[in-house]
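Render this sequence as a predicted structure.
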Amino acid sequence: MSEQVQARVYVCGEWEIDLVRRELRHQGLAVPLGGRAFEILAELAKSAGELITKSDLLQRVWPGVFVEEIALRVHVAAIRRALGDDRELLETTIGRGYRLRGIWHAREESEALAIPKPASPGETDLPSTNIPVATSGLIGRAAILPHLQGLLSAYRIVTLTGPGGIGKTVLALDLARSVLHSFQGLGFLVEFAPLADPRLVSSTVATVLGLKLVGEEDAEDAVVRAIAHRRLLLVLDNCEHVVDAAASFSEAIVSRCPNVHVLATSREMLRIEGEYVYRVPPLDLPSGDWAEGPPVQGGAAAELFMARARALGREFGGDRETLRAIAAICRRLDGIPLAIEFAAARAAMLGPPAVAESLDDRFNLLTTGRRTALPRHRTLRAALDWSYELLPESEARTLRFLSVFAGEFPLAAAMAVEDEGTIPITDGIANLVAKSLMTVDLAGDSPKYRLLDTTRVYALEKLRKQGEYREAARRHARYFRNYFANAERESESRPLPDWLAIYGQHLDNVRLALDWAFSPDGDAQIGVELVAVAVPIWVQLSLLAECRNRVQLALERLDDRAAGAERLRMQLSAALGWSLMYGFGRASQAGPAWATALELAERLGDRDYLLRALWGLSINQLNDGQFRRALEFAHRFREVADGSDDPIELIMTDRLLATALHYLGEQDLARDHIDRVVSRLNTFGYEPRFIRFRFDLRISTHYFLARILWLQGLAEQALGVVARNLVEGRNGGHALTLCSVLGQAAGPIAFLAGDLDTAGAYCAELLDHTRRHPIRLWQLWAECFQGLVMAKRGGTTAGLAMLGTALEKAGDAQFLPRFLLPLGEYAACLGKAGDVARGLAIANNALVRCEGRDDFWYWSELERIRGELLLQLDGGRRVAEAEQCFDKAIDLARRQGARFWELRGAMSLARLRIAQDRPTDARDLLLPVYRKFTEGFDVTADLRDARSMLAALPE
């Protein structure tokens, strides 16, 4: 049962202030209000009607903390916003303080304590908090927490500093848990301990927030965009070895994200503006007469010692010798929690007196109490030396060899790195866990082991001094090379979440192994082989830039004389081509990489990579706007795949041909191929994994099918495919794929149907998606589309400004197929806004580009738009030219099988005939085109307009 308490609720009319649930309610519904703002409101409610001075209110809400008055004013403003139309309930007496007006009465109720529920992922678009649940009580820090809570409310960034082992992380996590409700459950722990490269600080935060980095966008900017308007807490743990990068990142966050608070742990301050540095003190030490008096005088240090020993199965009595020994140990260790835990673990085996006698003076480096005077590697050296030297050599060797791992590792990895000594490695690991030198996570199918960071650094230093590092690092790199050997094959048979659970956890170890392999003391061949098999992890996590950098380095270090060098170069060239192909403005650079992969695949007779290279070259030519070349590579792909019994190869053949033909304007032929793809996809399960070709074939097929159906005049079928495709894209979990679903089909088709509300909603979704996932080109497209929808809705000036700015930022990319629709509509809107000459120049330039690149899918519409602009130019004296444009638009659309464009062209020409007082000609022109349509009469604005136009014309 829930714990029952007497709850006090203050009520005034429709407003309630619940002190137990910490809720402000209006008409029974909770009104969002920050934690510190609520505390201010609660204090005012307790003294309703009475003036509380500013200084008194500051002291009540932030006891023992100096807070500037501006902090109070900020929270008071938040209260007024929450009160809305009743904001006058909070009265300000200028220069003095505040009071709560109205008649408030207290109501005593028996209610269950409620833990505020975090916002769901659907509400926040961020994952649930990853801050772990406490597994034991926080010893000796209870008095600190309220003070830190006040600091975290008053300051946007708080850094906990102190020597290694002082308990910064434990304290930070407990503090985060205690204030999580104030952030609506949005709090995230980011562990920097595994990082060897400071440049990965921002991408590590992005990974924790669930952001998939695609393209060239800076990870820091991606994080800022994702959380700019969120209220949340970031806990940045172990910043000291990446302090410059962590400081720069934190400063960017607090300056650009007004509702985000940062709680950092570091052995040195970040030294940035707005930072409040809190030096974590050691635990309280036993008093001088503790052994003579009651145990309560032992202080937190002794309490922690006792609790740790008790957890290991030892209960120490109250005899004077034992108590004196424990007091001596705690004092000699300066109350540093980690060192005390080491001592307690050893005392559980040897007894406190024996441990106390072994200390001697080897911990003198920890007695100064000055964190800044101690180098990072020496803060716990004495404690670790003592603990390490008490280990049997077999366990010490195990500890040394396991220090090569970053983060968690399974038993199989440990066995691969440390060969069996005088005792089985399983026994050695178990002993190290029992002695608190390792931790174990028993959740899941198999145990996961980990060395604490300070222990790992210490043991790694020992490994180097013993001359064992190179061998351990080599075994570590070999293990992960072998571990990832099956990653690509398994990606085609396992669901993506399961696959990532197996391989994604080892990304830091892959990075560590590669850093060693390509170092002067490393083994470049192992590094090259590891990069080749690890490519799928970068692909699935959308880490394009890292993939490209690692692959380029591997290619540079590849020894062409080594066995299998050509095959490795082929694999790496294909990976490089893929990573470059989706980078902003890098399509042209990807071509040579794919060409190398193709040449080597042909030389080696590798049919699999021959298909990959042909696929890559075809898609890359599409991205680069070279559609005839794309079709040539698609035909070559078909030649290789013909006669194959692999359904994926047959599907890919038609998929490539359909895409190229669609952009070339051959909609009927494209439809034939895309129908075959759909038919074959329906013969097996929903989730085939196509890691060879790096995208979800089913989802991408459906958004191209929708485009083709729409242009063919099958509006209802197209909209039905869009509806299903949106469900697929949103559930697929791949950032780039959802961009295409929204931007290739859903948004444009809704716009062309004349449904501006739905088009705007899809655009808003895409904008939000690209702010959380840095996909540069799609974000620019979404900004273009947003401006276009705005202009069409009547906000012409603002919409055109937004559209023009986004197109300018896109540069030459504005002539890619996906940008042609907003580009053409931009020209049309400029004409309607009176800037006809500029609109005509844009349309003419786009037509030249399209003709030069054989990009014909939108050519008919561009000709029609050009004709409309010509009618507005020179006082209507260019009618003949406009007629030629309309005739050409209709002819192009008819030859392409694009009935939708044909209808638009016919309507433009029919309107011209009506203006020329030729209604019969207008009807004779429009009616045959209208009769080609069999559906979509009620969902397509153009068909409705055509019906109205025909109804007004004489038969």
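Summary. The mean pLDDT is 84. DSSP finds 43 helices and 15 strands in the chain.
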